[in-house]
Amino acid sequence: MNRDLQGHYITISTLEEKARAFVPALLPLASPIEWSSQLREKFDQALLALGRLDSISVLLPDTSRFLYMYVCKEAVR
């Protein structure tokens, strides 16, 4: 069975520490998204949550250090 590449690696750095991150290949869409009222409501809730997260990140003294803590935590798991 022949398979295409499943994705590729990119080099990222956080606080000058380099790491490789895997970026998966995009999935092909079988059909366009049907925006029902329930799906639209969920989408709006997610967008609102992202806005709240963005506004809180302004209050952090050093955002990169905060994110680095979670990168290290995830790498240890």
Provide a descriptive summary of the structure in words.
- The protein is an alpha+beta fold and 77 residues long.
- It has a domain at 35-77.
- It is 45% helix and 21% strand.
- The chain has helices at residues 37-57, 63-76; strands at 7-14, 17-24.
- Strands 1-2 form a two-stranded antiparallel sheet.
- Strand 1 (7-14) and strand 2 form a beta hairpin.
- The chain starts with 6 loop residues before the first strand and ends with a helix.
First-to-last CA distance: 33 Å
Counting H and I runs of at least 4 residues, what is the number of helices?
2
Spatial order of strands in the largest sheet: 1-2
- The total strand number stands at 2
Regarding quaternary structure, how should these chains be classified?
single chain
Task: Point out poorly predicted stretches.
Answer: none
* Structural class based on helices, strands and sheet pairing: alpha+beta
Evaluate the radius of gyration. Answer: 18 Å
Major β-sheet profile: 2 strands, antiparallel
Helix content, binned percent: 40-55%
Strand content: 15-25%
SSE ordering: EEHH
**Average pLDDT, all residues:** 83
